[in-house]
Model the fold of this input.
Amino acid sequence: MPTKAEVKQLKNPVKLKVRKGDKVVIIRGKDKGKFGFVAAVAPKEQKLIVLQENPENEEMPIPLNAAIKHRKRRTENERSTRLQIPVPMHVSKVMVVDPETNQPTRIGRRVEGDKIVRYAKKSGKTLHDVPQMEKK
Done:
C-alpha cells in the first residue's frame, strides 16, 4: 500500500528545468565555476551527470564531480589503473548557461503559440532544445 507522499508524487511528476544536452555551470562543490554539458538526467532523484568536453579526444569527455575508482590488473599484461567515474550531482548545484551572454541564468517557462518553451530569465531568449545524439 503506497503512502500519502508516494501517491502525491505519482500525481505530480517532477519537472526539471535542466535537460540532457544543456550547457551548465557548476555553482557548488569541488568543481565550482567549471562549464560542462548535461549527459544524463534522473528526474525522480533530481540528479544529473555533468561532463566537460575534452579538446584532446572528442569521444572521451572529462567527467565533472568525478570519483576515482582503483582497478586492479586482471592479467599479467595489464596494469592497475585509476579510473575517473562521474558521480551524479543534485540539480540545485548547477545553473543553465544563457546562450546570449554565456552567463549562468535561471530558467522560466512560457507559452509560445501552442507550445510551452523554456527561456533564459537574464536575456529573455528562448532556449532551443539541443538535438539528441542518435544511438548506434
In short: The helical segments are 4-11.
